[in-house]
Amino acid sequence: MSHSDTQAAETFYSHPFDDDKLREECGVFGVVGTSDAANFVALGLHALQHRGQEAGGIVAHAPGVGFNSARRFGYVRDNFTKASLMETLPGPLAIGHVRYSTAGSKGNTAIRDVQPFFGEFSMGGAAIAHNGNITNADALRKELIERGSIFQSSSDSECIIHLMARSLQQSIPERMKDALRRCEGAFSVVAMTRTKLIGVRDPLGVRPLVLGKIGDNAWVLSSETCGLDIIGAEFVREIKAGEMVVITEADGVTSYFPFEQKAARFCIFEHVYFSRPDSIIGGQSVYETRRQIGVELARETPVEADLVCPVPDSGTPAAIGYSQESGIPYAMGIIRNQYMGRTFIEPTEQIRNMGVRLKLNVNRALIKGKRVILVDDSVVRGTTSRKIKEMILDAGAAEVHFRIASPPTAWPCFYGVDTPEREKLLAATMSEDEMRGHLGVDSLKFISLDGLYRAVGVAEGRTPGGKRYCDACFSGEYPVAPSDMLDKGFELKTAAE
Ligand code: SF4
Question: Above 90 in pLDDT, residue 461?
Answer without folding.
Answer: no
